[in-house]
Specification:
single chain, Double-stranded beta-helix, 2 domains, 8-stranded mixed beta sheet, 8 helices, 20 strands, 27% helix
Length: 322
């Protein structure tokens, strides 16, 4: 039995880079993706992610067609933390985030009851510099963290608090896909989210596990957005402004220990250092596609200059018990 995950494809993984498969000729990118879909998922199972180079995607319609072929049961996003625009049914832009600021390592929708097992990306326009979607192995991240910190988060989980309003972040109607408050309340009740209305503002909190076991092999993974959605990850001037205007309880998002204890700046730095120690990256080229195991592999976005257009699909929904 051939155990080479790259069998039948021209691919490799070099130090400091994700797995890369090179396509020599693909006049019909969607047909190529359909033909090699099983092989690509075999590489993802082995390596955690794979970047496909050489498909020559020329427009959003072609990119969406490839993403729909590669993704099973695409998800509609709920509880977004940053704006996106929609290209096609369940095909989105990457999150709008200041180009000069990094988007820190995270697992997509790790704070939700239903989250994607697979992320699929397609690059139509690569930035002049920077802007890579960097990757980090969540099992290796866990190994880098102090055992007492991991034990506390395993015991208590982590708490995400959010304030939705029209001035900062994503308004609640956009995040939940409805202007009907009763629908929002039903969603929160079904998804173990505590909520409170303060006039037009919605405040929520939800406690989630910080560590999970991969369903394929049982490996323990650091799976959360504790550092990314914490107040200390914001640019200092942004945090100071928001605290001054809205108060510490009115931040668009913040994280804490499961018992409500503060996750301090030094802990956020420690978590980000663990991510940095195992991060790999490959600069985008126009036409690239990437598949990522969202459970096993965290992703980030590096700062960049120039135009950057990356489409995103969230696939293979996984539901945790509440």
């Amino acid at each position: 039995m051939d155990t080479d995950p790259y069998a039948g494809l021209e691919g490799r993984r070099d130090e400091g880079r994700p797995a890369v498969v090179t396509v020599a000729d693909a006049p019909d990118p969607a047909a190529w993706a359909a033909r090699h879909r099983e092989a690509l998922y075999r590489i993802v199972a082995s390596e955690g992610a794979v970047l496909v180079r050489g498909l020559g995607l020329a427009d959003a319609a072609g990119a969406a067609a490839v993403l729909k072929v590669l993704g099973d049961d695409l998800m509609s996003e709920r509880e977004a933390f940053a704006p996106r625009w929609t290209y096609d049914d369940r095909i989105y832009s990457s999150s709008k985030w200041p180009p000069n600021q990094p988007m820190c390592m995270h697992h997509e929708l790790s704070y939700a009851v239903e989250f994607p097992a697979t992320m699929a990306f397609a690059c139509l326009s690569a930035p002049t510099t920077g802007g890579a979607t960097a990757l980090a192995d969540a099992g290796r991240v866990l190994e880098q963290l102090p055992s007492d910190l991991v034990e506390r988060f395993e015991r208590e989980g982590w708490l995400l608090t959010r304030s939705y309003n029209e001035d900062i972040g994503v308004p609640w109607a956009e995040a939940f896909g409805t202007t009907d408050r009763s629908e929002v309340e039903r969603y929160c009740a079904a998804n173990d989210i505590s909520f409170e209305w303060r006039g037009e503002e919605l405040r929520t909190s939800q406690r989630r596990p910080a560590v999970l076991h991969h369903p394929a092999d049982g490996r323990r993974l650091w799976f959360n957005q504790i550092a990314f959605l914490n107040q200390w990850t914001m640019a200092p001037e942004v945090r100071e402004y928001l605290v001054d205007v809205y108060g510490p309880e009115g931040l668009p998002f913040n994280t804490s220990y499961g018992d409500g204890g503060e996750v301090t700046e030094d802990v956020v730095a420690l978590i980000n250092k663990a991510y940095d120690s195992v991060t790999v990256a490959e600069p985008w080229r126009a036409g690239d596609v990437m598949l990522v195991d969202n459970l096993r592999t965290a992703h980030s976005r590096l700062p960049y200059d120039g135009a950057r257009e990356v489409l995103v699909a969230m696939a293979n929904p996984t539901t945790r018990s509440v």
